[in-house]
Amino acid sequence: MQSPREALSRGDLPAAGAAAQALIQSRPQDAEGYFVLAMVAAEAGQMGQALPMLDKALALDPDNTEYLAQQARLLILLRRDGQAAEVARRVLEKGSDDPRTLDTVGCVLARLGDHETSVAPFEQAVAREPANLDYRYNLAAACGFTGRVDAAREHYEAILAADPGNARSHYGLAILSRQTQEANHVPRLERAVANAHNPQDLVRLRYALAKELEDIGEAPKAFATLSVANADYKRQIRYDFAQDEAIFDAIEAAFTSAVTAPSAGLPDASSIFVVGMPRTGTTLVDRILSSHPEVASSGELQAMPLAVKQVSGTRSRQVIDPETARAAMAADPAEIGKLYLARAAHHRPTEATRYVDKLPANFLHVGHIVRSLPNARIVCLRRNPMDTVWSNFRNLFATQSAYYAYSYDLLDTARYYARFDRLMAFWDRLYPGRVLQFSYEALVNDQEVESRRLLEHCGLSWDPACLAFHENQAAVATPSAAQVRRSLNADGVGRWKTHADGMAEVGAFFAERGISID
Predict the structure, then answer these.
(1) What is the value of pTM for the model shown?
(2) What is the CATH number for 321?
(3) Which of 345, 344, 305 lies closest to 328, judged by CA?
(4) What is the pLDDT of the chain when averaged over all its residues?
């Protein structure tokens, strides 16, 4: 009879499950049967069933690092970050020679935002299995996030030498640095686009090509390439702006009718929330703040959306939807604060007393932040509406995330900006002075004055290190990684004007609604 592992490796889940059950019956003290059953359940998407089976395997073989790494992976998928972090650390302490185990624990660390620590297990996985392109891709991405640009480039090129159509590596290489007329990958990307058939590959390749075309001054070609990529992908996901509009409507209605409870939350004052539309300078402000000796960055945490979702009790798959927005208002604000802090604790660096949570979409949850953590500081980035729309349209976000579904259409993005603008005005009326509206353009124009204003709002003393944010060595896992490692410049101001003809309809949309684009 075939072994459970053989069936699992072929993707034959029924056969793997049957073989594992047979192994358990014949050798009940052998952990392997329970482990394979756990992996079968996980592959079928049944994480709630997989974890107890894995626990049984570990009860029989508690020091098995392969089992532990998979346990950490399941825990992170179930959003139990604290437990996942503890298990991942156990694997690192015990060590492993198995490349899959090393890669798995590296991926868990990356999901936890600990990109610096993830590099070592990724390197060890590649050293043990150099031909595995998935392992090498994970290492390349980790190198890019942590500023090891040359190493990242070498790994991406090694992948492309073995697999010329590897879309993830083409995209990773394109965004790693600014391309030039003398050194770019445009011809290679054009060939890759022509040969691509998978829709996910095609959208990545077109974004990579558009980015490099824009870098080398081929603006019309860049705009045309992006337009095709986004139109195709919008059709695939069947996005309708009404989906997001319903969320905005529900939030505003819920807080309009809510009883104001500004002091009902927890007194904790360690959190600094940086919110706003994506690609408006949130990463830049995060770097400025985390350059202060009292502050560290925790990255883009899902802690507040998940806390709100948890107290709402809604069973929808979406983290935020109209039903959740309404139901969450019945919760005790202190409970939301407690759940948030518990989730955030696993991501907080230990060396600082304050930390930045820079999930842009937390602008949807400003009301809950104010009510549940009344001493938290909130900064909202504001950038020229036209630059905001263009920057969202030209950047490929997490394609499976509902947060960014609007970004594949210029007018959808403009509509989203208009509702964001309206919601921020709503929060200002409801909670005057609680949110610092912080202008990207003003910061570029007068870095020190605006940086001082930022620190003052956050209750921080002045520190000149905040002006040298580009020397901050912390990892960056956003599209802004390359930009924030350079000193402040005006390159991003007015960039939309390069595509003025294509953006004309967006300008007209804003003009009709009285939204200034100057």
Answers:
(1) 0.90
(2) 3.40.50.300
(3) 305
(4) 93
